[in-house]
UniProtKB/TrEMBL annotation:
The keyword Hydrolase does not apply. GO terms for molecular function: efflux transmembrane transporter activity. This is Outer membrane efflux protein. Keywords: Signal. Residues 407-427 are annotated as: Disordered. Residues 409-427 have a biased composition (Polar residues). Residues 1-31 form the signal peptide.
Amino acid sequence: MFFYSVRPRLVQSITLFFALAALNQSFNVRAQSTQQSDLRQWRNANTEVGRFPRGHIDLLKAERGRVSAGERDSNLMLGAFKEDPAAPELTEQLARNATLTLHADALASQAISIVERMSRDIQLLGLQQATQRLWIEAVSAKEQLIIRQRFAEAASVSLELAKRMEKIGNWGRNRRIDIEIGYQSARSQLLVAEQTAFNSRQKLFAQIGSELWRLPNTLPKPKDLAGLSELLTPLEQQLTELLARHPQYAILEKDTQYYERVVGPAMLGQWQQEIDKMIGASASWTIGIPTLDRSKILWNHDLEKAIKARSEMLRLRIKTKTDLQQAREHLRATHTQASDILNKLQNLHSAAEEEALTRYNGMFISTWDLIAKAQTKMQSEVAVAQAKQAFWIALVDMQALLAGAPYSSPGNSANSAEVNSPTGKGH
């Protein structure tokens, strides 16, 4: 009797149990299906990443390569510096020829005296030197712009990866902000590099009088030391050859020899003794240095001209030698620096990047370590470009000096006055 009384409730309980069991089984089936789907997606994603040597970095770059130009990072698009790929490439020699053609009036002028001819020659030397310097600066600025653009694109890829990691919860907002700060810094450096490249190119175009050109992408590597005759030739030999070609020095030397022969050694010796006495009797750091009492010696205009010519000749010789020494040492230093960066530092960075790639593929370091190595290597490429620029400008200044042009010490904006209207004076 009791069995029959509880039977309806028992039947309900059994029915509910089987319903819950069936529901739970259905849920487990769906959960298992979802897990299998997620697992397949995870495996597909890892397979996709594994197809690239540098994993996530190359994958993101490949994705960017498949998107249209309008979908790329618009903040990294160049605006001011644009070139026509079909335009002819402007070599250093073509730039020099265009400048001289623009100043054909200087080539056609007829120099009457030695002084006029010297002035014209130095003007033409200044034109060529300024053009070569502007060409070097413009090409180097373009080379650095290309590197900065690659650097900024790498920073943009890093930011995209950071955003994805933040979205799926692997990263916090603070870590993504750190990456974005690096991106904004790279973008700022790119804008500065573009403006520098644009300004340098426009100065060069103004110098040669034409804009229908395309600049080379890089400066050539520095010459080998064995090919630098400017450093291999002895200093005294260079000085002798330079002074022999210097019209002003030749005039001063001729005047010195003539007037000293007219005056004679006795009068010159007496004059030198009086000068030594006068200088020795004066106190240091005073404006009260006495003048020479001409009544104590036999004084005439020939002696005055002989003194003036010899003093100017000695000052010119000393300054020329000093400029030559400074130019040689600056060229030697820039050559050593550029060679060391090219042959050592850049190779070391390349080896470090390869080692990092190997360690990344072995899962010993993260993607961010690999990105840091690549960014460091690109910074070294900027240093290489700057070192090459310093070397070639030093070589141009050295060659101009040996040809008879005025020398501007390193660190100054050499020959800035000669860019548009070179009127540099001789030594």
